[in-house]
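WARN retry 2 of 3 for item q-0093 after timeout on previous attempt; input resubmitted unchanged.
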Amino acid sequence: MDFEIPQDIREKLAELDDFIERDIKPLEQQDDNIRFFDQRREWARTDFENDGTPRPEWEALLREMKRRADAAGHLRFGLPKDLGGQDGSNLAMAVIREHLAAKGLGLHNDLQNESSM
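OK item q-0093 returned
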């Protein structure tokens, strides 16, 4: 079996890495957004006084990340072109998810709530 990642997917991974460094990491570091990803994350994300719902600040940060990813053409990668996607294959999506997960916890990918750019 051939387990080599195809060139087009490797290029997409490089494109995503550049986007993360240029657009997502600065957003993650802006203000005190890092609180959503360090040891304070559970308290920063969850409004315990409001039945444990997500805090509005957390949801706003996720919306901004998704807005940036969508504007850059990454959010809908796996969707068909007629829906604004790039017809990304299941293999590409699996490789991308594995790649983002291997980067660790961050605004680019959070496995706890299935949020990913």
